[in-house]
Specification:
By secondary structure, the chain is mainly β. It is 0% helix and 31% strand. This is dTDP-glucose 4,6-dehydratase.
Amino acid sequence: NNTRRTDETNPANPRLNNKFGHVIRWDEGTSATDFTWDIFVFGSPANGDADTNRSGLNELNQFASPDGLAFDGRGILWIQTDNGA
């Protein structure tokens, strides 16, 4: 979605020029029509500045361009990326 970036931020896209992406987590309410959400993790290189590396990632867990999610049999969340590295 790089071509759809804007010069404005909003609650779901709080970083300008967000080339590393992020994962939004949602929690369904008691009905089928309501939910809450927050940003689960921001993608960033380990050496990103404070505004870029808002999740405090390091060399062991840095990532960019989240593209898919899957849970394994243990309930561990795996984040697929497409950053081309």
